[in-house]
Amino acid sequence: MYTAKGKIVQNELLTQYLPLVRRQALALQVRLPASIELDDLVQAGTVGLLEALGRYDAAQGASFATFASQRIRGAMLDELRSRDWLPRSVRRNARAVDEGVRRLEQRLGRPAEEHEIAAELAMDLADYRQLLSDTNSGQLLPFEELVAEGHEQGLENPQRSTPFAELVDHEQRERLVAAIAALPEREKLLMALYYQEELNLKEIGAVLGVSESRVCQLHSQAVSRLRARLRDQG
Question: What is the 3-state secondary structure (H, E, C) of the chain?
Answer without folding.
Answer: CCCHHHHHHHHHHHHHHHHHHHHHHHHHHHHCCCCCCHHHHHHHHHHHHHHHHHHCCHHHCCCHHHHHHHHHHHHHHHHHHHHCCCCHHHHHHHHHHHHHHHHHHHHHCCCCCHHHHHHHCCCCHHHHHHHHHHHHCCCCCHHHHHHHHHHHHHCCCCCCCCHHHHHHHHHHHHHHHHHHHCCCHHHHHHHHHHHHCCCCHHHHHHHHCCCHHHHHHHHHHHHHHHHHHHHHHC
